[in-house]
């Protein structure tokens, strides 16, 4: 048991300039040895006493502690932004090693020198903190650095120190540096890499990706010693960035080469199975802190959601969908138990040279799954034929929730004629974003295994085949790139339906009273599954909302 009161007594005596007695020195050395044996979890809780650590953060702490005990290890962590990975693997880790292993050299690498200075300032502030001094009293900064930290804290100035040492250590040192900065002559026992790219201009550049990879392999990795811990925490922005290449290396590495511990936590649990993640599919990672961000991000920025929250970078091939995006059903699903949306991507006039196919799809949203119930795609049809096709689906699915019609080509005329004839619940959809961006709204469902197509043999309630030519749908999805020249009307019609459904979530998606989320602090024991129908709310809630999307039958913004 560490006697903190005795330590405080000795430190007070030392700070006042009094001479320490032999007993004081003996007790001080004893307590210092005890402090050096404390684990990383105890240190984190001591430095952040009011912070409530979540179960997934506890797991990361355990893995780091294991590497520290062995004084060797490689850990690569992928986790959504603002989930404390930089805190656990960077800002708290450096002071801990600085005190526990005072002779170690530490190198912190990030995407720029300016960012390295910002992180270094945070770390220095922790080391200068009174709580830290009680935990590691042998860590003493040079007087000029202590004075700069004190002045910066008093005046709320930014620190610009990225290199410092411990006065009581012969070798121990910290160096923060941008990935393209100088590390010449510097070796390290702890190497921390926190994000390799500052933004899309860098990670989308094959020249910069190749340059950063060479720096990583030819420079940074060669700074390690016999006893070295390497921690990598970064979003995988591209299939061919450092994280992507490192994953490929791990799959084919020599069995005798050092092992890598790869930790992946997705914001929403999908079918990817990790032994340390005990959530059920559909459960969120940190709903008690980040639920609002999850719900907004999935709708507002589906591409960013997949990359930064689900750890799935966009394909570099240009093809958005593949065979893994679809699940299949062969048993008829009752549309009366679904929220049915009929979506229309009309063609131009029949006689127009630009006349392409006119696609109509019927999607059913049930719980957290989406079913393709019907589709029709016909080349160069006139406005009357289009209206008759839509009416056939309306009669087949009388409990439909809305008919979404893209406001282009024949769309505006179709909507006007149908409304004049008493057809209700028609949504005038005005596309703003690109096709590729709109299609990304389907990706979260596809990658979570929640988008279902009927098999060619699937039959409806009357024994008729539902979609015997379903392969047309699959082919169009598999060749979709968002570029002009390829048939994509079915994909466009589907994306409209998904966007309409996401808009239905929008008015009350931040009403927390609708979410029944259990406390997750039980090492992965289940949260209540949050599925979309629970987020939509009832009719009374919809009447009360002031959202413009419910008052007007127009959809814009995608």
Task: Explain this structure.
With 558 residues, this protein is α/β, with parallel strands linked by helices. The protein has 3 domains: 1-37, no CATH class; 50-265, P-loop containing nucleotide triphosphate hydrolases (Rossmann fold), CATH 3.40.50.300; 312-555, 2-Layer Sandwich (Nucleotidyltransferase, domain 5). The protein contains 23 helices and 15 strands. The strands form 2 sheets. It has an 8-stranded mixed β-sheet with strand order 8-14-11-10-9-12-13-15, with helices on both faces. A 7-stranded mixed β-sheet has the order 3-4-2-5-6-1-7. The protein is elongated and about 100 Å long.
Secondary structure elements and their pairing?
Layout: H1 4-15, H2 22-36, H3 40-47, H4 55-70, E1 73-78, H5 85-91, H6 93-100, E2 105-110, H7 113-127, H8 130-135, H9 143-155, E3 163-165, E4 173-178, E5 188-194, H10 200-203, H11 206-220, E6 224-233, H12 242-252, E7 261-264, H13 287-300, H14 302-309, E8 327-329, E9 339-345, E10 357-366, E11 369-379, H15 383-396, E12 402-406, H16 411-420, E13 426-429, H17 435-439, H18 443-447, E14 451-454, H19 471-478, H20 489-505, H21 532-536, H22 539-544, H23 548-551, E15 554-555
Parallel strand pairs: 1-6, 1-7, 2-4, 2-5, 5-6, 8-14, 9-12, 11-14, 12-13, 13-15
Antiparallel strand pairs: 3-4, 9-10, 10-11
Helix pairs in contact: 1-2, 13-14
Q: What structural keywords apply?
A:
558 residues, alpha/beta, Rossmann fold, Nucleotidyltransferase, domain 5, eight-stranded mixed β-sheet, 41% helix, 16% strand
What's the main sheet like?
8 strands, mixed
The CATH class of the largest domain is identified as Alpha Beta
Q: Give the CATH topology of the largest domain.
A: Nucleotidyltransferase, domain 5
Number of helical elements = 23
Helix content: 40-55%
Give average pLDDT, whole number. Answer: 82
Q: Order of strands side by side in the largest beta sheet?
A: 8-14-11-10-9-12-13-15
Q: What is the CATH-assigned architecture of the largest domain?
A: 2-Layer Sandwich
Radius of gyration: 29 Å
N→C terminal distance: 60 Å
Which term fits the overall shape?
elongated
């Amino acid at each position: 048991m560490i006697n903190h009161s005795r330590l405080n007594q000795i430190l007070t005596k030392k700070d006042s300039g009094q001479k320490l007695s032999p007993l004081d020195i003996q007790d001080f050395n004893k307590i210092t040895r005890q402090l050096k044996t404390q684990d990383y979890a105890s240190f984190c809780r001591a430095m952040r006493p009011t912070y409530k650590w979540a179960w997934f953060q506890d797991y990361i702490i355990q893995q780091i502690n294991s590497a520290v005990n062995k004084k060797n290890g490689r850990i690569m962590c992928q986790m959504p932004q603002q989930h404390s990975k930089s805190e656990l693997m960077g800002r708290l880790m450096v002071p801990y090693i600085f005190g526990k292993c005072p002779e170690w050299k530490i190198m912190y690498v990030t995407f720029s020198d300016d960012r390295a200075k910002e992180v270094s300032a945070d770390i220095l502030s922790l080391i200068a903190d009174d709580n830290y001094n009680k935990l590691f009293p042998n860590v003493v900064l040079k007087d000029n650095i202590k004075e700069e930290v004190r002045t910066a804290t008093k005046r709320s100035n930014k620190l610009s120190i990225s290199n410092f040492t411990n006065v009581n250590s012969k070798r121990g040192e910290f160096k923060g540096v941008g990935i393209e900065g100088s590390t010449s002559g510097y070796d390290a026992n702890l190497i921390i890499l926190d994000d390799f790219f500052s933004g899309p201009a860098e990670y989308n550049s094959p020249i910069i990706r190749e340059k950063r990879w060479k720096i990583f392999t030819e420079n940074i990795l060669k700074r390690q010693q016999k006893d070295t811990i390497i921690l990598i925490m970064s979003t995988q922005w591209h299939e061919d960035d450092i994280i992507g290449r490192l994953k490929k290396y791990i799959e084919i590495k020599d069995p005798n080469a050092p092992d890598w511990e790869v930790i992946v936590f997705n914001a929403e649990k999908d079918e990817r199975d990790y032994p340390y993640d005990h959530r059920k599919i559909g459960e969120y990672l940190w709903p008690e802190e980040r639920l609002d961000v999850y719900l907004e991000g999935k709708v507002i920025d589906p591409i960013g959601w997949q990359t930064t929250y689900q750890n799935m970078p966009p394909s570099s091939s240009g093809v958005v969908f593949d065979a893994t995006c679809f699940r299949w059903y062969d048993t008829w699903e009752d549309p009366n138990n679904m929220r049915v949306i009929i979506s229309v991507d009309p063609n131009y006039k029949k006689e127009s040279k630009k006349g392409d196919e006119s696609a109509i799809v019927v999607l059913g949203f049930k719980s957290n799954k989406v079913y393709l119930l019907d589709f029709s795609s016909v080349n160069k049809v006139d406005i009357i034929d289009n209206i008759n096709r839509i009416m056939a689906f309306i009669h087949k699915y009388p409990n439909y929730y809305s008919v979404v019609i893209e406001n282009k080509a024949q769309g505006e005329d179709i909507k006007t004629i149908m409304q004049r004839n008493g057809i209700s619940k028609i949504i005038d959809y005005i596309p703003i974003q690109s096709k590729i961006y709109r299609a990304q709204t389907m990706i979260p469902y596809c990658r979570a295994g929640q988008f279902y197509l009927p098999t060619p043999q699937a039959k409806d309630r009357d024994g008729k085949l539902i979609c015997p030519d379903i392969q047309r749908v699959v082919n169009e999805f598999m060749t979709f790139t968002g570029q002009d020249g390829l048939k994509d009307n079915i994909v466009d019609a589907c994306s409209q339906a998904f966007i309409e459904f996401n808009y239905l979530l929008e008015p009350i998606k931040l009403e927390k009273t609708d979410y029944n989320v259990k406390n997750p602090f039980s090492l992965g024991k289940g949260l209540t599954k949050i599925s979309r129908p629970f987020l939509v709310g009832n009719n009374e809630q919809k009447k009360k909302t002031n959202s413009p999307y419910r008052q007007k039958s127009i959809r814009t913004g995608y």
